[in-house]
Write a structure and sequence with these properties.
Length: about 270
């Protein structure tokens, strides 16, 4: 089965809650899954949500509060960012927020129509348990984000075209490594990545077929890259390994950008 990062699920489902297209409880369930209840911590410097008497302390109350604020403001959205060193696209600023988001590799930016203040939601995850019974403690750190800038230019259609090439490159790299031959545990994982579909609750049911298709392909590419970068499989030269690693970084970047474009496509406000 293919899946999306927690921040992607929070952005996709949360925007649906803010627009009143998605009920609150299914959204919370899709974000939490089998995790312990997600905590929310407003950091120093993060403004309180406008017009609310208290501060949310878990994901359910946070989404409910943001939905109330969005209703009052006339609209709101949650935007996804998946930054990595060397590819900081989507980082909302200021510097402290960017550092936290880069360390996590993901974040969500909450914004309300007509409100200059924005909030960055950065997940802090502590995993526990075993391979058979995994668990996670998640705290969403809420930090004050910089005012909105021009949106990223990538469209879902453009991302889909780029993903076709990225998928081919990643698949070829994995086939060349012949990982399944060298690692007995890899065969089932490769089959799951090749044949698996996107988790049913990864995005709301009303998500467009194209967006869902792009998300599934992006998740597949990232899963293939993860498999292909675990080891070098068949013996290759250091030059070949370096070249392959560079190619895989590039296709992973394409997949991340496509995932962000697809999640954020329905969240961008209409332009005149």
């Amino acid at each position: 089965m293919l899946d999306l990062p927690r921040s992607a699920r929070l952005a996709a489902w949360g925007t649906g809650v803010l627009s009143a297209d998605v009920p609150l409880e299914p959204a919370v369930a899709a974000v939490l899954r089998d995790d312990e209840p997600h905590a929310v911590s407003f950091e120093e410097g993060a403004s309180a949500l406008p017009g609310l008497p208290g501060t949310p302390d878990d994901v359910r109350t946070l989404l409910a509060a943001l939905a109330e604020c969005a209703h009052t403001a006339g609209g709101g959205r949650l935007l996804l960012a998946l930054p990595v060193p060397g590819d900081p696209r989507g980082l909302p600023g200021p510097a402290a927020v960017n550092v936290a988001a880069l360390e996590a590799g993901e974040c969500v930016v909450a914004e309300l129509d007509g409100c200059a203040q924005r909030w960055a939601l950065v997940p802090e995850v502590t995993e526990f348990g075993s391979v058979w019974e995994p668990g996670a403690l998640v705290t969403w750190r809420v930090l004050g984000a910089a005012p909105r800038r021009a949106p990223e230019s990538s469209s879902v259609a453009e991302s889909e075209r780029e993903l076709r090439v990225a998928l081919s490159t990643a698949t070829q790299a994995l086939a060349t490594l012949d990982v399944a031959r060298w690692r007995e545990d890899a065969a089932d994982r490769i089959a799951a990545v090749r044949d698996g579909g996107l988790a049913r609750d990864a995005v709301p049911a009303g998500t467009s077929p194209r967006v869902t298709r792009v998300l599934q392909t992006a998740a597949r590419v990232l899963a293939i890259v993860d498999l292909a970068t675990e080891d070098d499989g068949a013996a290759i030269t250091s030059l070949e390994a370096t070249s392959r690693a560079r190619a895989l970084r590039e296709v992973a970047g394409v997949a991340r950008r496509a995932l962000v474009a697809a999640v954020n496509a329905h969240a961008e406000p209409a332009r005149p």
